[in-house]
Design brief:
Layout lengths: L2 E2 L5 H7 L5 H10 L14 H10 E2 L3 E8 L5 E7 L4 E14 L5 E10 L3 E3 L8 H4 L2 E4 L2 H14 L8 E5 L9 H12 L11 E5 L3 H10 L4 E5 L5 H7 L8 H10 L8 E7 L7 H10 L5 E7 L13 H13 L3 E4 L13 H15 L1
Parallel strand pairs: 1-2, 6-9, 9-10, 10-11, 11-12, 12-13, 13-14
Antiparallel strand pairs: 3-4, 4-5, 5-6, 7-8
Helix pairs in contact: 5-6, 7-9, 10-11
Bound molecules: S-adenosyl-L-homocysteine and iron/sulfur cluster (SF4).
């Protein structure tokens, strides 16, 4: 079987490929020019291209479906070599800035949400990815290629700034080694040059792994999927809380090295009549006391068969105002890509269901 080129750091490739000085050129072809075959690499000797083509694949993923949202977001379903599918989303944010003459200029900011596993072991009650169980970890190259394909498909120039969030399918800290390697490959200055402080790992709160990630000293941002402020409710929503309770997560966050200009993000999925009252907001405020935190309130995104409901906008706003008035930074996640069911796992599930239906009819 061919090896996946993007599985390797530049240093590793130098040990695998001779002459090693060619690796930098290869990196440029793959990560700046988005080459999908070695044959395109015209400044490499023909013989070398042939040999590389035999040993490595540059395309571990195949795009099977793209969904466009009215806000410009695009959701991708990718197929892996073994036929499993994963999702990634390109999110477009508009930034406003001023030109020198005082006129307003708008420019787009790209954020790409990528997957780290096929399925997930954590089994959160509200999450569609959890429903299919866990299948396997993604390799570093399968993680990296999600962004590569998205940049290629959208003609995003190699120099354009892109942020990465590991908030797609899977629990990144359950696949820590491969995710850490992907972070480094993304950050390589000869490659995509996406600094670790532009990358955010989101976790359901595996406290010991948060500590381990911190000790790796990668300079990455951290997001915690908290969703509940007392252990009893959190255990119901996220069974992982039995192994790692809220206090253990808070402690791990306090030990985590945070970039001077950054904050730890606490994601709070708001579910109607479950965790949307001011009592919870009060507890949250207390819990995050002393942490350089920001809170991101997320509307629960309903799907067929779920018992949970989307909260009322007025409750979201009241929750947010309670926190911001007391000095805690809090945003409500815009419904980016809502009409393409932005919460990960939802596109894959639709696709699997339709395949099922087709098979039956
Ligand atoms: N496993 C990691 C990262 C992937 S989940 C984690 O849990 O942090 C990424 C985000 O999707 C989480 O914050 C999760 O709460 C959110 N999510 C899952 N199901 C959702 C739904 N139905 N509606 C809205 N957000 C959802
Ligand atoms: Fe896994 Fe995150 Fe979904 Fe929980 S919310 S099941 S941790 S992907």
């Amino acid at each position: 079987m061919k090896q996946i080129f993007q599985d390797y750091t530049q240093e590793e490739l130098r040990a695998l490929i001779t002459p090693s000085f060619r690796v930098k050129q290869l990196y440029s072809w793959v990560y700046h020019k988005y080459a999908s075959s070695f044959d395109e690499m015209q400044n490499l000797p023909k013989q070398m291209r042939l040999e590389l083509e035999e040993r490595f694949t540059l395309t571990p993923l195949k795009t099977v479906l793209v969904q466009n949202s009215s806000d410009g977001s695009r959701k991708y379903l990718f197929e892996l070599a073994d036929g499993h599918t994963i999702e990634a989303v390109l999110l477009l944010m508009k930034d406003t800035a001023f030109n020198e003459d005082g006129s307003i200029k708008h420019h787009k900011r790209y954020t790409v949400c990528i997957s780290s596993q096929v399925g997930c072991k954590v089994g959160c009650a509200f999450c569609l990815t959890a429903k299919g169980g866990f299948i396997r970890n993604l390799t570093p190259g399968e993680i990296v290629s999600q962004l590569l394909l998205i940049k290629q498909d959208n003609d995003i120039d190699a120099n354009r700034r892109v942020n990465i969030v590991y908030m797609g399918m899977g629990e990144p800290l359950d696949n820590l080694d491969n995710v850490a390697k992907a972070i480094k490959i993304f950050a390589d200055l000869d490659g995509m040059a996406i600094a670790p402080h532009r990358q955010t790992v989101s976790t359901s709160g595996l406290s010991t792994k948060i500590e381990k990630l911190g000790k790796m000293g990668l300079g990455i941002n951290l997001a915690i999927s908290l969703h509940a402020v007392d252990d009893e409710l959190r255990e119901k929503l996220m069974p992982i809380n039995k192994a790692y309770n809220i206090q253990s997560i808070i402690q791990a966050v306090k030990n985590f090295p945070v970039n001077d200009r950054k904050r730890v993000m606490f994601e709070y999925l708001v579910i109607k009549n479950v965790n949307d009252d001011i009592k919870a907001a009060k507890k949250l405020l207390k819990l995050l006391d002393g942490i350089k935190a920001k809170v991101n309130l997320i509307y629960f995104n309903p799907y067929g068969g779920t018992e949970f409901e989307r909260p009322a906008a007025k409750d979201m706003i009241a929750f947010q105002e309670f926190l911001t008035q007391r000095g805690l930074l809090c945003t409500i996640r815009e419904s980016k890509g809502l009409d393409i069911s932005a919460a990960c796992g939802q596109l894959r599930e639709q696709e699997l269901e339709s395949k099922d239906t087709n098979a039956r009819t």
